[in-house]
Amino acid sequence: MLTMLRLSAISLAAVLALPAHAQFRKPEDAIHYRQAVMTTMGNHFYARLGAMANGRIPFDPHLAVENAEITVMLSKLPWNAFPVGSEGTPSKAKSSVWAEQEKFKDLSEKMQAEMAKLLATAKTGNLDNYRLAYRATGNACKACHDHFTTE
Amino acid sequence: MLTMLRLSAISLAAVLALPAHAQFRKPEDAIHYRQAVMTTMGNHFYARLGAMANGRIPFDPHLAVENAEITVMLSKLPWNAFPVGSEGTPSKAKSSVWAEQEKFKDLSEKMQAEMAKLLATAKTGNLDNYRLAYRATGNACKACHDHFTTE
Questions:
Q1: Does residue B14 sit at the A interface (CB-CB below 8 Å)?
Q2: What ipTM score was computed for the predicted complex, to two decimals?
Q3: What are B127-136's contacts with CB under 8 Å, separation 24+?
Q4: Residue B69 touches chain A, beta carbons under 8 Å
Q5: pLDDT (tens digit, 9 = 90+) per residue, B34-74?
Q6: How confident is the model at residue B23 (pLDDT cuts 50, 70, 90)?
Q7: Which of A18, A40, A60 comes nearest B37 by C-beta?
């Protein structure tokens, strides 16, 4: 577990160390990328992990771990995709993303931390704890979207 | 490594075992999801892994492994998102996806296998082999897109 955490920290640092222009040629590319990550993460979070948390499908710890591993990986990706100037349609990001970078970073990190806890909880196979972790993660998503997006 | 492979096989089976309607309420949801996965995978494949294979940015084995882990995970996801009826705009999938399911499955599995080899090659840190594996993976992507999509 510690090795995993260490690897994860190194990997994330490597991703964040690359300048955005190495990954995105145009602001629109960054917008499409971050929206694609959010769409994929949202699907696994709400339609898979949420379906189990809310009892729409039976709780299957293996499936919960599988999906939480996907969302944990995806939760690390969008933050390099907000270069200055990547505002406006089709993005729903408010200009506060760039004006309040510290708060944006703080809320994005809280979401990532909750997502990691959700994975840890899924691994224990305890449905009650899983439900609590799911709700906490959903609230962390919502806190950031409420403040930084127009939807 | 063997444990990882076993876990991966179990997890993939779990994903594929879930009926599509558990994840997608409408055909459009499946289309948006699979396009989002492809956009995310394409960005990490071409703009990150490809940039290193083609010398646009220096080859960094840690960064290559990080990105190949992302593309390997994403390479497993789209195949559950082709329910019957999920054709037409904005999808670029031809009707042959549903008419030639065996070929579609075969080409999708070849791509996943090449992507896994690309990750293994990145882990060795050998740039020449990494370049060869990158090209083989790109060809596997292309073979499927040439036959099954309108672009």
A1: yes
A2: 0.86
A3: B127/B59, B130/B52, B130/B53, B130/B59, B130/B64, B131/B53, B134/B49, B134/B50, B134/B53, B135/B53
A4: yes
A5: 999 999 999 999 999 999 999 999 999 999 999 999 999 99
A6: confident
A7: A40
Calpha distance A35→A119 (Å, rounded): 23
Q: What is the 3-state secondary structure (H, E, C) of chain A?
A: CHHHHHHHHHHHHHHHHCCHHHHCCCHHHHHHHHHHHHHHHHHHHHHHHHHHHCCCCCCCHHHHHHHHHHHHHHHCCHHHCCCCCCCCCCCCECCHHHHCHHHHHHHHHHHHHHHHHHHHHHHHCCHHHHHHHHHHHHHHHHHHHHHHECC
Q: Report the candidate in B21, B45, B91 with the shortest Cα–Cα distance to residue A33.
A: B45
Measured between beta carbons, the chain A residues lying within 8 angstroms of B66 are 11, 14-15
d(CA A92, CA B64): 31
Hey, what are B130's tokens? 């990494």
| pLDDT tens-place string over residues B70-126 | 999 999 999 999 999 999 999 999 999 999 999 999 999 999 999 999 999 999 999
Q: What is the separation of C-alpha A51 from the centre of its chain, rounded to a whole number of angstroms? A: 18
Please say whether the beta carbons of B73 and A44 come within 8 A.
no
Please state the pTM of the whole predicted model. 0.87
**CB-facing half-sphere around the CA of A96: CA atoms within 13 A:** 12
Residues 21-50 of B with CB under 8 A from A: 22-24, 29, 32-33, 35-37, 39-40, 43, 47-48
Flag whether residue B51 sits within 8 Å of chain A, measured between CB atoms: yes
